[in-house]
Fold this sequence. Notes:
mainly beta, 230 residues, globular, four-stranded antiparallel sheet, Neuraminidase
Amino acid sequence: MAVILIGSNGLTLDPQGRLVIAAMADRAIARIEKDGTRTVLADRWDGKRFNGTNDLVVKSNGAVYFTDFPGGMRGREKSPAREMPFFAVYLVKDGTVTPLVRDPEGGTPNGIALSPDEKILYVGSAGKILRYDIQPDDTAANGRVLFEGRTDGMKVDRAGNLYTTPGAAVGIFAPDGTALGVIHLPDLLGVSATNVAFGDPDSMGLYITARTHLFRMRLKAPGIRPGPIG
Length: 230
């Protein structure tokens, strides 16, 4: 069965291996079932549609964290289709949608990732990488700036290092925010990194989406792959 995904942006797998998408143009979070059908997990809060579901990460217990920013609407913040008065990080758990952080650092949240032990939630917003403590009920608290630096999508490897996408490069940072290195992309027209993912049987392949290109490189350390793979 063919499934039409309109404006999908962030992609991940849940613990059952099902594809979960941030359907930005649809302004929704959706899951593709094993039979190919589509289930909408969230498309609004308090009766108002999201602005543009951008990126997401799924915890091992199935809780979904996602960012909502203005990219899902023509005209963005000034769009007449806008219903939600703020941009936020949300939690979807057991069918309930909860806003965790509104307008983080006065900006629009974008990339999002969890630490390997799932105790820390990382969010990119307003030219900063923010860090939040995950609480026993899966909400987030104690937000603070980990380091200055913009990112689109981002991921975490098994050592807890962050891989960010600040432009025509991938930045690598230790869990404490120390810069570890930079992977520069080829100097090609239109190349700007938008997200990364770990792959290959040993999880040591880094796949980089870059608007007009898809890159792959081998790493010396394994990353974290979503879903039942680990």
